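Students often ask why inverse folding is considered easier than folding. One informal answer: many sequences map to the same fold, so there is more than one right answer. In these notes we will look at a single instance of the problem. The structure comes first.
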């Protein structure tokens, strides 16, 4: 059921959050020329990367824990409300085309369900019970990871998701933008990216949203690197689902092997368009089925498969 916090108590709580702080020096921002406002916003955004840099050890520790579990078949689940939930869904939705992951392996949950991606669902973020129900539908296991995302660090849906995941033995990460947040405290790995007050008071889709996007990029991308979804900085598990990606697949094989176009096309044809398999076939001088077998024996890690061939 929704939170029963008294409105006055909630106002007091919000006033204590750095992400909600009022900046009197910007009280006349609406009177400024457009270019000056753009410069102000750009200057604010430039501080976000530094705030993320201050938490890199915590981010790296969380990623290593996530990767260990995903290597055992676990899933990565993002849970948040509003902008935070939308950012989680965005990150999850980009993993299948980028890394050829099963859509069920990286999942984004938003308070209020799919409709909340484009429309505000009143009261959904205040419900811990809704988070529990959404996670129960996934039948969590100890190999899964749940990342609660909330700029304030106090959103009941995100906290409820983390708390419930812990009862299921899953790994938990709490991503917030305020220090001393209940969300970070509730998680195995608390990550607090303190970006300070927003340009528009309380508009956490700005610096806070940018910080969350940067961290989610790191979590998914570096986890996939650890799982062998890349070869160097090449996306060798990219799914060629359109003309642009087919052209990218050809280019990736060329960059990895230095082979001529004809050899690349033959290798891609022999491996059903699988970039990683085509690279192995060319570099190791093996046929498509052998490349597939070697990769399976190496848990999908191309470097390990090449080493096995010698």
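Output (designed amino acids):
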């Amino acid at each position: 059921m929704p939170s029963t916090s008294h409105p006055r108590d909630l106002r007091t709580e919000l006033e204590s959050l750095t992400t909600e702080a009022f900046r009197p020096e910007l009280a006349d921002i609406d009177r400024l020329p457009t270019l000056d406002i753009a410069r102000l916003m750009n200057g604010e955004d430039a501080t976000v990367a530094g705030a993320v840099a201050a938490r890199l050890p915590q981010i790296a520790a969380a990623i290593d824990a996530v990767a260990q579990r995903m290597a055992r078949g676990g899933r990565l689940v993002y849970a948040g409300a509003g902008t935070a939930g939308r950012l989680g869904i965005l990150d999850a939705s980009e993993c299948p085309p980028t890394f050829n992951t099963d859509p069920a392996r990286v999942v984004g949950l938003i308070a209020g369900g799919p409709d909340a991606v484009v429309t505000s669902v009143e009261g959904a973020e205040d419900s811990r019970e809704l988070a529990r129900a959404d996670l129960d539908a996934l039948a969590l296991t100890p190999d899964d990871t749940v990342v609660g995302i909330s700029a304030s660090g106090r959103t009941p849906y995100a906290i409820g998701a983390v708390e419930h995941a812990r009862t299921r033995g899953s790994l938990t990460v709490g991503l917030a933008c305020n220090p001393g947040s209940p969300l970070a405290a509730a998680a195995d790995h608390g990550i607090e990216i303190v970006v300070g007050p927003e340009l528009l008071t309380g508009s956490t889709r700005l610096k806070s949203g940018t910080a969350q996007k940067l961290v989610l990029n790191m979590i998914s991308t570096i986890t996939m690197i650890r799982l062998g979804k890349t070869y160097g900085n090449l996306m060798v598990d990219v799914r060629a689902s359109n003309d642009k990606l087919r052209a990218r697949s050809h280019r990736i094989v060329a960059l990895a092997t230095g082979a001529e176009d004809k050899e690349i096309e033959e290798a891609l044809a022999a491996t059903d368009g699988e970039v990683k398999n085509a690279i192995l076939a060319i570099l190791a001088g093996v046929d498509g089925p052998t490349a597939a077998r070697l990769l399976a024996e190496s848990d999908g890690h191309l470097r390990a498969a090449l080493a096995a061939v010698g």
